[in-house]
Amino acid sequence: MKPHTDPSDSELLQAMLAGEERALAALYRRRQGGIYRFALQMCGSQALAEDVTQEVFMVLIRDGHTFDPTRGSLNAFLVGVARNLLLRRLQRERFYVPIEETSDNDAGTHESLLTNGGPLEDLSRLETINSVRTAVLALPERYREVVVLCDLQEMSYVEAAEVLSCAVGTVRSRLHRARALLIERLRPAPEEQASTTANSARCFA
Predict the structure, then answer these.
(1) pLDDT digit string (tens) for 60-84?
(2) Is the Cβ–Cβ distance between 34 and 153 less than 8 Å?
(3) Structure pTM?
């Protein structure tokens, strides 16, 4: 008896194209979360991220037959569709806001980052998370997307290159530059650092 294995993305897509609604539902459950997080981390707006996520699956229903498995994974295809839709929306609407609220999809990330810490440590880590989010959102698009794909979504350079339709070397160079920009943005100014140190010393005196 063969062990049960879940169907691959490509198998689900073929079943969906053949008219099986359950295959579309299965694909949605499997890939919706990653697409939503990508869009959210790129634009900072939950409403826009939700819209783009829904649009991605509408495109899949309409144009799923254009997917070529020899050119990459279905996940990379879907994230690439999300990227194109999102960039068009951002350019058309000039929609850009920093993330201020905590979404349900971010809760697990926060919990994993805040385990085994007291209130002061928790507050410090939350401030760090918010600072990183703001810094990522402030990056130019070509640098923001490689950070989101490679560092936040944990895609390989090859997968990121598939999403961006560029060479792997381009991903590497952009990511190197993006990380340098982030370090620069996150580095406190000398006077701010001195003020923070003085305030900390007074708090614990």
Answers:
(1) 999 999 998 888 899 999 999 999 9
(2) yes
(3) 0.73
